[in-house]
Amino acid sequence: MKAKVWWDRQLIVKSWDRRGLSPVNAGIICLIALSAVLFAVETEPMLSADWSDVLAVTNIVILGLFAGEFALRLWSAGASHGVTGLRERIDYAEPVWFVIDFLAFAPELLLLLAFAVIGNPPADWVVGFRLIRLLRFAKLMRYLPGVRILVETLASVWSELFASVILAAVLIFLAAILIHFAEGHADPENFGSVPRALWWSVVTLTTVGYGDVLPHTLLGRIAAGAVALLGVGIVALPSGIVAGAFIERLRTERMKTRRADEETSE
What pLDDT score does 128 carry? Predict the structure, then answer.
């Protein structure tokens, strides 16, 4: 039981009862930083050729440590506060962070096992294989209070954000159809079909406006103006959802801090 409580306080941020980070969590941050260095070194052909075996073994060790951390976190979460049961431990440590911890090691570990069975991957796969390691950087968010609040805010409004993404996708498709019929005969190379017009639609609705593809007819320019105005709302909608939820969350956190300070002063 003492070991369980010790690991809980070392791994779960809100179980740590001192200032700053626990030694184990500080070590995890160092591992993430080491992963970043390895990722950079592997992109340099001269260095990666000379140190390929060392880099591969180091990466496997890091994966094993992340897997062990995940297992210990799942085993010990909430022990210092009397939390029991798997579901209760996950709720205490917050499911979002468990998912992030799992993604930090599991996909790459499974691919390593698969490659060990089927042989070395094709060269084109290596780049994608390395990109999976970027998921490890998501673990840093747990240790940055502001980022943690932002992630938790996004998790709380994911349904609203998903609805805004669906709305944006529908409007992008409709805009591509509109510009295709308005401009397709004048510029068949860029607007001759709906799939061709989708690039212009995405660039315009997101207000990027590269200018590489643009309408030439009066009707096409009128349609483009309407789509550009819609784009302002498309960009603002998810931003407003996140900003409103983030402000509300900050207000709640400040109220909690104020109450805790008042209780301590009493």
Answer: 65
